[in-house]
Write a structure and sequence with these properties.
single chain, about 425 residues, alpha/beta, 7-stranded mixed beta sheet, two-stranded parallel ribbon, 19 helices, 11 strands, binds 4'-deoxy-4'-aminopyridoxal-5'-phosphate, aminotransferase, Aminotransferase class I/classII large domain-containing protein, transferase
Length: about 425
């Protein structure tokens, strides 16, 4: 008889579930495709050279372990908002941005959700279908209702633009819409600039509040400014908005947890009230955010030479991701007719409610070449994923998401010629 006898073991999310299964698998040739980190050719998590150098400099500059203020590292926060909105953005010049350092992107989302719960009377959030699994949980824990808007087109392997805009138009004034500005997780499908501008207009007219979750800036196009074009289009069109930023993937500082949550307000006075509210809430969550990662990112973004080197390395990572996507898709395209038929035996590809997925085809796979960022959705359904886990020791997540960070040459070699065909 214990205090916790009523407690049932909860179901883990799809990402943790795949990772744990992979860890428990004794097969030495197993392949983890649930990863969030980026592996090099030998399957080790990479550290960028610019980050190594910033680390050296940040440690030399300040070896003490003084606690940070509630808002975190002020220089880091300043650099973070400049990266999101643009260094010369009107909202920054006019002092209309409230911002605090957070414990990476997850806690930036959580702090926003908490702000919504505490200070916002609409207890609802609209999310893309599908979205990062943790989005569902973060808002669910605060008992904020979620409704999904159409986003992924399924068979087209692209955004369902018509469905997305129709859903935006149907929303009610005052509601909050979660958007991913680049390298959409899990689909890899993004809007282009003209689409962002149109979405900004629809949302301005409908009085909808945008919340951007920016976890992969730079890793969609290889260009940090380009990947912020959605955020900047909204800012320039006069939106008030919030942005969560993770620096985990684009700096490879996954474990150090640098992150930021910022709000663009209509006046400096409102920004001051939001700023203090965020600090009051952060006080009871983590009091002061971790210093080490923020110091490194501050150095990285402030030193012109390091910054240039970092930008080149981000571009390099993006190119590698695209090469891996190409290898994945090419392998599928080259698979035999027999392999394609065995795919069909296991059912049609991942059937999104609003997609027109019916039968798989080589053409659908080719369309996946247009996807961007760390992930690929080629149309695996949960049954096919279960077969990959059980019979082939290959571990994408249950929703069919493949982490390109794990499609390394050594992994490809482990399963010579067969990794890609086994996936079918
Ligand atoms: N949002 C999205 C869409 C993500 O994919 C991630 C990373 N998996 C995050 C936020 C935040 O992750 P982290 O807390 O590691 O920065």
């Amino acid at each position: 008889q214990g205090w916790f006898q009523h407690l049932k073991v909860p179901r883990r999310d799809t990402i943790c579930e795949a990772r744990l299964r992979c860890r428990a698998d004794p097969n030495p040739d197993k392949i983890d495709l649930s990863l969030v980190t980026f592996r090099d050719d030998d399957n080790n998590a990479i550290v960028l050279e610019s980050v190594r150098e910033a680390k050296r400099q940040a440690q030399l500059a300040d070896g003490a372990h003084e606690i940070q203020s509630l808002a975190g590292h002020p220089g880091f926060v300043q650099r973070a908002i400049e990266l999101a909105y643009g260094a010369d953005a009107a909202c920054i010049r006019e002092g209309r941005v409230a911002a605090v350092q957070t414990v990476s992107g997850t806690a930036a989302c959580r702090l926003f959700a908490q702000f919504q719960f505490r200070h916002y009377r609409y207890r609802q959030i609209h999310m893309p279908r599908p979205t990062w699994f943790n989005h569902l949980k973060i808002w669910e824990h605060l008992r904020i209702q979620r409704s999904d808007y159409r986003y992924y087109g399924g068979r087209t392997r692209d955004v369902n633009w018509a469905g997305f805009t129709q859903d935006l138009e149907r929303m009610s004034a005052g509601e909050i819409v979660l958007l991913q500005p680049c390298a959409h997780n899990p689909t890899g499908c993004d809007l282009d600039l003209a689409q962002w501008q149109e979405a900004a207009e629809i949302m301005l007219e409908g009085r909808l509040f945008p919340f951007f979750d920016c976890a992969y800036q730079g890793l969609a196009s290889g260009d940090l400014d380009n990947d912020a074009q959605g955020i900047r289009a909204f800012e320039q069109s006069g939106h008030e908005m919030a942005v969560a930023q993770s620096f985990a993937a684009n700096t490879t500082l996954w474990g150090e947890r640098p992150g930021c949550l910022s709000f663009v307000c209509s006046t400096a006075k409102e920004a001051e009230a939001v700023q203090t509210s965020l600090e009051v809430m952060a006080r009871s969550l983590w009091s002061s955010p971790p210093a080490y990662g923020a110091r490194i990112v501050h150095t990285l973004l402030s030193d012109p030479d390091l910054r240039q080197q970092w930008e080149a390395e981000v571009k390099g990572m993006t190119e590698t991701l695209q090469q891996r996507r190409q290898a994945l898709v090419q392998g599928l395209m080259d698979a035999s007719e027999e392999t394609w038929q065995s795919w069909a035996l296991h059912g049609s590809p991942h059937q999104m409610q609003d997609s027109e997925d019916d039968a798989p085809s080589r053409l659908d796979c080719e369309a996946a070449l247009n996807q961007r960022g760390m992930f690929s959705m080629i149309g695996l359904n949960p049954k096919q994923v279960a077969i990959l886990h059980k019979e082939h020791s290959i571990y994408p997540t249950r929703n069919g998401r493949i982490a390109l960070g794990g499609i390394t040459p050594s992994n490809l070699q482990k399963a010579p010629h067969s990794l890609l065909s086994k996936m079918l």
